[in-house]
Amino acid sequence: MNKKIKKTFITIFLICSLVVLSSCSGETTGGGKKVFKIGVLQLVTHDALDAAYEGFVDGLEEAGLVEDEDFTIDYQNAQGEKANCQTIAAKFVNDNVDLVLAIATPAAQAMASESSEIPILVTAVTDPADAKLVESNEKSGTNVAGTSDLTPVKEQMELLTEILPEAETVAVLYNSSESNSVFQVNLAKEAAEELGLSIIDASVSQSSEIQSVVESLVGKVQAIYSPTDNMIASGMATVSMITQEAGIPVIVGEEGMLSNGGLATYGVNYYDLGKLTSSQAVEIIKENRKPADMPILYLTDFELIINKEIADTLGITIPENLSERATFINQE
Question: What are the structural domains of the chain?
Answer without folding.
Answer: 30-149+270-298 (3.40.50.2300), 153-267+302-329 (3.40.50.2300)
